From TrEMBL:
Annotated SUPFAM superfamilies: 6-phosphogluconate dehydrogenase C-terminal domain-like, NAD(P)-binding Rossmann-fold domains
Family annotation (InterPro entries): 6-PGluconate_DH-like_C_sf, 6PGD_dom2, ApbA, Ketopantoate_reductase, KPA_reductase, KPR_N, NAD(P)-bd_dom_sf
Superkingdom: Bacteria
Gene name of the encoded protein: panE
A GO-annotated cellular component: cytoplasm
Pathways per UniProt: Cofactor biosynthesis; (R)-pantothenate biosynthesis; (R)-pantoate from 3-methyl-2-oxobutanoate: step 2/2
Recorded family membership: Belongs to the ketopantoate reductase family.
GO terms for MF: 2-dehydropantoate 2-reductase activity; NADP binding
Keywords: NADP, Oxidoreductase, Pantothenate biosynthesis
Domain Ketopantoate reductase N-terminal: 3-142
Location of the Ketopantoate reductase C-terminal domain: 168-289
Function: Catalyzes the NADPH-dependent reduction of ketopantoate into pantoic acid.
Protein name: 2-dehydropantoate 2-reductase
Length: 297
């Protein structure tokens, strides 16, 4: 397939290399002005990708957008003029609501949402480390996206495990719930995920999960407090030594994805007239820190 990766950061570079190695024609679309970008995975020989090539973009069968949630609109909309309506758009980021914001502009395309637990890190512009193997779930955002189940084979061949989830909305909410529980607290406290199992966080985590359960149930997502709590605790244990992305973003004073994680939860809660004071406080605290830094792009 002809594939363009928009936003070749950590996760985008990982997929770019894996899809190229699987035999696809892969090009990049970045914020840089280079015509080509070399990328090396885990110290292997560098691979060269063309960058910001409009012809290759226009010829794409699949465009995978791997920017952060708050960058989706700015990264995607200028490219639409070059794309055929048949080009599949796949969005792979944490958080929810970013694709909804541009839904009317992109609805002519088949749209696929992806959520992944693969982990990657980019120590410098030309290197990427695959720091953790994980699962990737794909699902349709619109009617035309439902015809894209074949993408499971394409992606799975490049970087397993990939599966199709007809209930991707539920999978995204489940991931959002885990992010709401882990990210703001680890960011504000500057602690590793595992430290959340300390008793001092017990009440706050319980309150976050209670609020999440109410909102998710109001959204029609089948879940219980016990299920969510078990899930959150499992992830805290399994990723005990990890630094959450929000912890890292706040450490480096980079804009976080809080608006599309806790912010999305709060927006949905308001829609259902549900009070979520604990999540609201976390959002306010993270936003206060963000606004105390110099303006980020
Ligand atoms: N990294 C992981 O292990 C991981 C795992 C699971 C999910 N995720 C999620 O995946 C998403 C991406 O994460 P990441 O860690 O890969 O972030 P990242 O390293 O910051 O990558 C984002 C990339 O998008 C580029 N970009 C931003 N705006 C753009 C634009 N307008 N046009 C083209 N490119 C643009 C950025 O360019 P600059 O370099 O110029 O900033 C950067 O290279 C996030 O939602 C994250 O939460 C990440």
């Amino acid at each position: 397939m002809n594939i363009t990766i928009v936003g070749p950061g950590a996760i985008g570079s990982l997929w770019a290399i894996k899809l190229l190695q699987a035999g696809h024609n892969v090009s990049l679309w970045s914020r840089t002005t280079y015509n080509s970008i070399d990328l090396s995975l885990d110290g292997q020989a560098s691979l060269s990708f063309s960058n910001n090539n409009i012809e290759k973009l226009s010829a794409s069968d699949l465009v995978i957008v791997t920017v952060k949630a708050w960058q989706v609109e700015e990264a995607t909309t200028p490219l639409l003029q070059y794309l055929d309506p048949d080009t599949i758009l796949m969005f792979m980021h944490n958080g929810m609501g970013a694709v909804d914001e541009i839904a009317t502009q992109i609805d002519a395309h088949p749209i696929v949402l992806a959520t992944t637990t693969q982990a990657a890190f980019k120590p410098d512009r030309n290197s990427v480390s695959h720091t953790g193997a994980g699962q990737t779930q794909l699902g349709a955002f619109n009617q035309a996206g439902k015809k894209c189940t074949f993408l499971v084979d394409v992606l799975n061949h490049a970087l397993p495990n990939v599966s199709w989830n007809p209930e991707i909305h539920t999978a995204l909410w489940t991931k959002l719930a885990i992010n709401c529980a882990i990210n703001p607290l680890t960011g504000l406290e500057q602690i590793k995920n595992g430290e959340l199992s300390e008793p001092r966080f017990g009440n706050t985590l319980t309150a976050i999960i209670e609020e999440l359960t109410q909102v998710m149930q109001a959204e029609g997502i089948s879940c219980s407090f016990d299920e969510l709590e078990t899930n959150v605790n499992k992830v805290i244990q399994a990723t005990a030594k990890n630094n959450s992305s929000m912890k890292q973003d706040m450490f480096y004073q980079r804009r976080t994805e809080i608006d599309f994680i806790t912010g999305f939860l709060i927006e949905t809660a308001h829609k259902h007239q549900i009070d979520v004071p604990v999540n609201q406080t976390l959002l306010t605290q993270v936003k206060e820190q963000e606004s105390s830094w110099k303006k980020q792009d």
